[in-house]
Every structure is written in C-alpha cells, then in structure tokens.
Amino acid sequence: MRYLKPLLAALTAFLLCSCETTSLPQEVEPLTIVLIGDSTMAKKRDTARPEMGWGEALEAFFDGSVSVSNHALNGRSSKSFIGEGHWEKALAELQEGDVLVVEFGHNDQKIKSPDRYTEPYGEYSDNLRRYAQEAQERGASVIIASSICRRKFNEAGVLEDTHGDYPAAAEAVAEELGLPYVDMEARSREMLIALGPQASEGLFMNLKPEEFENYPDGKEDNTHLQPQGAKAHAQLFVDGLLDLGHPLTERLR
Q1: Among 27, 56, 115, 242, which is most buried by a count of CB atoms within 10 Å?
Q2: DSSP 68
Q3: CA–CA gap between residue 179 and residue 166 (Å, rounded)
Q4: Which of 106, 163, 224, 233 is labelled catalytic?
C-alpha cells in the first residue's frame, strides 16, 4: 500500500496538470445564413434547370455548423419582396446569431413596374435600412451585397454598366449602418472582364437548341446563371467575406 500511495499522488498530479494545459475543443453553435434577393440568387425549380442561383451554391463552401436558407425569389425587388409578404417570412426565421445577406437591385430598376421600381437613394436605400434594422432587432447580423453584373459586352468587347447607382447606394447604406458590404457587382465585373466575351458565355444561361430538355429551342440569357456560373459567383461572395475578415470565414471548409 505504501508503494501505491506515491503512485496515486503522482497520477493525480499528472491528471490535474493535463486538465490545466489541455483545452477541450469548444462546441461551435450552429447558425443559418438567410438569403433574400432576386433570381440571380434564388433556388430554381427542376423545370428551369440548368439555371441555378448563386445562393444555391453557397452552403457547400461552409462546414457543417452552417446551413443556408434561401428566401430569394425570381423577379423580386427590395420593394416587392416586402409588399408580397416574403420579408415577413424570412424575418420570422432569423434567430440570434444568424446572418442575413441582402442582395437586391436588378428588379428595382424596373421603372415601368410600379410594384417593383425604387429610386436608388430613396426607397431602395430605405428598404435596405429596414431589412438591416429589423434583422438586428432579432439578434442577427447583416451583410449587404450589390447585384451581380450582367454579361453585356458591346461590339468592341467592352463590358457595359447596367446597374447605375444601385451598387453605390447599397454601399452607402452599409457604411451608414456600419455593416459589412460585399460588392458583388464589382467582383463579378472584374471576373467577366478577365474571362472576356467568349469564355464568360458559359457561366450564363446561353444554351444551344436541344442542349437541355427544358429548353428545346435554346436560350440566350446573360443575367441568369448555369451551375458553373452560380459556383463562381458564390466563390466571389466568399472571397468578399475573406477580404472583410468576416467571422463566417472561420466556418469555411
């Protein structure tokens, strides 16, 4: 027994020391990234494939602690998303610690559609403020993003601007409210210019006749994305988070 006591004392000391120097891995609280936006971000029906919103490709970049809930919808502006009750549903889902990503602009430009049209530095900016403030009241954090660039090259091969003041207005709201801003317009513009007119064509819904069952007559669409385009734009968003040093980057795969 007298030999056992020193052994037990040494073992106890070792265990106590181990407890002090070895930290157990902390459990990471799961969170949801809630997306609100338009068709460039939205989940598509099977009858629309191969079209894919970049929001559909986002979850694959994160580890298992992050889920993505995509509330973005085709044809919606920052105004109609509220007016049709979609924001109410997305807001109700937000929990403390979640992240809201807001990307509108394409359909806010529809001046002939009064249910959707907004002035960049007027109602559009007010709607972004509302989204941010109401999400924060629920304990969520907010990221503002500008719209992705349309693939519109002119005859000289120059990519044209199609979004006017909306990206700058979104950035101004983010700065005003102290929110992180991902300039998807600028990032996607840079990507398209680097690729050029020919190589960038396949990112968008430019389809040959009979190439896909859902589009027997083919399609020419330089706004909406094919899977490779959706993944490329989701990567641009993640790159934006990395440049910001956003906490979400700690959960990347």
Answers
A1: 56
A2: E
A3: 17
A4: 224
How is the chain split among helix, strand and coil, in percent rounded to 5? 45, 15, 40
CA nearest to 78, candidates 45, 120, 32, 40: 120
**Options 27, 29, 213, 220, the catalytic residue:** 220
- 147 DSSP 8-state letter: P
Mean pLDDT, range 33-42, rounded to an integer: 99
pLDDT, tens digit (0-9, with 9 covering 90-100), for 169-221? 999 999 999 999 999 999 999 999 999 999 999 999 999 999 999 999 999 99
Q: CA dist 202 to 116, 127, 163, 229, Å?
A: 29, 33, 22, 8
Active site residue 220: yes
| CB under 8 A, 24+ apart: contacts of 225-230 | 225/40, 225/51, 225/52, 225/53, 225/54, 226/50, 226/51, 226/52, 226/202, 227/50, 227/52, 227/57, 228/202, 228/203, 229/52, 229/54, 229/202, 229/203, 229/204, 230/52, 230/53, 230/54, 230/56, 230/57
Q: Reply yes or no on whether 224 is catalytic.
A: yes
The residue behind tokens 């979850």 is: 59
Catalytic residue among 39, 77, 78, 146: 39
Q: Tokens for 33, please give them.
A: 């990234």
More confident residue, 164 or 17: 164
**How far apart, in whole angstroms, are the C-alpha atoms of residue 65 and residue 74?**
28
Residue 39 annotated to the active site:
yes
21 compared with 233, residue with greater pLDDT:
233
**Side chain identity at 59, as an amino acid letter?**
E
